[in-house]
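Progress against Task 2.4 (sequence-to-structure conversion) is shown through the following example record, which the project officer requested during the mid-term review.
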Amino acid sequence: MKKTLILIAVINLFSCTQKDANSTKPAEKSMAQIVDALESSGKYPVLDRTDTLAGVDADKNGIRDDIDLYISKQEYSEKQKKAAQQKARVSHKVMTIDLKDKKAVAKLQDEFNRASACLFQMSYGQDGEISGPSVAVEIANLYANTKKRVKARMAFNHTFDGTTFSPDDYVDPCDD
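Structure tokens generated for the chain above:
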């Protein structure tokens, strides 16, 4: 009797699972729809999705326009804003660097380290609860918002393999 009850319970469970699996579910949102909804709400910046590595920099200040707008909308002090812009300019260069030009790569690695060291000195948020490294990662991630840009960033990051730096290596890493 016990075995029969267990068998009935398993059959019922299986049939309920099958019924649920075959029932019509509401349409799931695609990733594009989710991103569009976040952008429309203002919770996420509207990012350049052109098929170029550099994206649009109409004012030619070395920062992609959408990232520039994002930084300007943050409640940063002037010093924090300049540090974020310094990181953004370096992130912009990362997208288009010729990785075969070893001198240019070495120079950009130094700029990258300086910009990171500058941000590491900063704290953001009302009570300094957001660290500079978090802002650095956020800016880098905003820049790498298409498959082509992710690949370019990964290729540049690969040039860092085996290297280290200390923020203390830079006496005054922030651009003025």
